[in-house]
């Protein structure tokens, strides 16, 4: 086999490591979400929370590897004028495709430059689907059946999540190429999961036995519940800067660019991420002391990161600091809206959907007129940085994600309600899923005995 040394450069190795580490940090976010949920659910549902979250996350990731990444690569085939762009993308990038199964050093760089990087980015997309379903599960813990959520995970990982990325996330994605800007995956991850969660929580209805704030009684929570939430939040804070770097293009000797091809820099991106943590964290501390609720100290930094995520690559740190101060306030407003609508969802929708929508709209104003879109070496409608960021295209991006996420979620809910059913039985909700689904004490006994 001919070896193409261009595929084995140190620059390529650096990018391989960067994207691999970023993808593994997304896995950390999935684990962190499970830990946060563990601190907020009732003891009788603790095991089932972990089992269902990990199950639907893994199945979503597994579904994406089949053809999901090919849907994103479709946009590049369109930009480079490849005949039959979608069919060719599937041939190249499905699980048994040409570029997925080949060793990168054996691929001619004239056909696929930086083959290793493209292969590893497939893993990045798999983990994004995993995180999406982990977020969705967090919005409906303690009351959704496992089977219908797993069915939804297949559909989301196979088609819906990759389609959202195809539309709004990437340099030559159809909407990015017209001015939609998103750096850290607000459209395909946070806003997508937020819309999906809103529909699902609405159809399921509220849990039994929770207070008006959506929290179960303290005596029903696991031991050290706040410690679990805190540890999960800190894991997310560790992971997000590296995930942000994974949303960048690094061209040796040329520069660093955001995923939509905006000119940026690694130092600026990391500074902005940490600034968003600290600005929103300050307001979270104030809210925590005023409301006598320590959760806000933990929730504050994440709300700032979501609100500012779309503009980490283009905003100045002082702008990020000012905007991040409103992160906890937007989340607090989202929680109040959910209570007014009598929807039992105080985490994902207020944090991901409300902050996500506000964040992409603000990015449209902060980056108004900034060159974006296109790809290196191309001209015309896909030329490098030929488009500009505008607020109205940001709004169009929101509408597109609503159509890709909320509408299919509603259709699946209606179908599953009439077939498998969505919600656990009243008996299971009262006794707890750990006992009904997994035998409760029997599981623990088996684990400790080594059976």
Briefly, what is this?
65% of the residues lie in helices and 3% in strands.
Tell me the name of the CATH homologous superfamily: Ammonium transporter AmtB like domains
Task: List the domain count as a whole number.
Answer: 1
Major β-sheet annotation: 3 strands, antiparallel
Task: Provide the spatial order of strands within the biggest beta sheet.
Answer: 1-2-3
Q: Could you walk me through the main structural features you see in this protein, from its secondary elements to its overall organization?
A:
- There is one protein chain.
- The chain is mostly helical and 451 residues long.
- The chain has one domain: Ammonium transporter fold.
- The protein is 65% helix and 3% strand.
- A three-stranded antiparallel sheet has the order 1-2-3. Strands 4-5 form a two-stranded antiparallel ribbon.
- Helix 1 runs antiparallel to helix 2 (46-79) and helix 5 (115-138) crosses helix 6 (146-168).
- It starts with 9 loop residues before the first helix and ends with a helix.
- Residues 442-451 have low confidence and may be disordered.
